[in-house]
Write a structure and sequence with these properties.
Oligomer: single chain
Number of strands: 7
Strand order of the largest sheet: 1-2-3-4-7-6-5
Low-confidence stretches: 3-8
Number of helices: 4
Radius of gyration: 16 Å
């Protein structure tokens, strides 16, 4: 029943706004489709806010952001001079319970599969959980995975009472702004 309700909500509220699709909205639509298609994820509750622009039209890097839950945020960056997107997904505070982790990893793996379809959403779900586990055990709170076209990085800020979990995906060879 939840799937039917989610489908109705997406059809009436989200997808019509995406029909005049910018690359960001197309990517967002793919990620939503990956969530809906994943049996582990389609029972989770998400906010489904259409991405909004946070940069000026004249900027070389176009940025949009949205949130999927009250603590899972997604920022899309598209450099006009490069191919592909930079995606930052932050969970604040870092998920502790299995339910919190599932919601976060559903969003993370959905975007990974949307930008880099070399793996399925379920394969990315397992990879993200493994990377998170590795980052939480490492001294620097970081782990990396490299696919053919994308860098996948996780960072867990362990130096605070409420750590932030951040996953970043960006095209191979792209240098992140400092």
């Amino acid at each position: 029943m939840k799937n039917i309700i989610l489908g109705i909500i997406l059809t009436t509220n989200v997808f019509p706004a995406i029909t005049h699709a910018s690359p960001v909205n197309t990517l967002y639509k793919k990620a939503i489709g990956n969530i809906v298609d994943n049996p582990q994820c389609n029972e989770q509750e998400f906010l489904l806010e259409t991405p909004h622009k946070i940069s000026d039209d004249e900027d070389d890097i176009q940025q949009h952001s949205t949130k999927f839950t009250h603590d899972v945020f997604v920022t899309f960056s598209k450099d006009t001079n490069t191919k592909g997107f930079n995606i930052d997904i932050s969970a604040f505070p870092a998920p502790k319970t299995l339910n919190e982790q599932l919601s976060a990893f559903c969003v993370i793996s959905a975007f990974q599969a949307a930008i880099d379809p070399s793996k399925t959403t379920n394969e990315y779900m397992k990879l993200s959980q493994k990377m998170y586990s590795s980052a939480s055990k490492s001294k620097n709170g970081r782990d990396e995975y490299q696919s053919k076209n994308y860098e996948h990085i996780v960072h867990l800020d362990k130096g605070t009472d409420k750590p932030t979990l951040t996953f970043q995906f960006y095209p191979q060879g792209y240098e992140l702004p400092r």
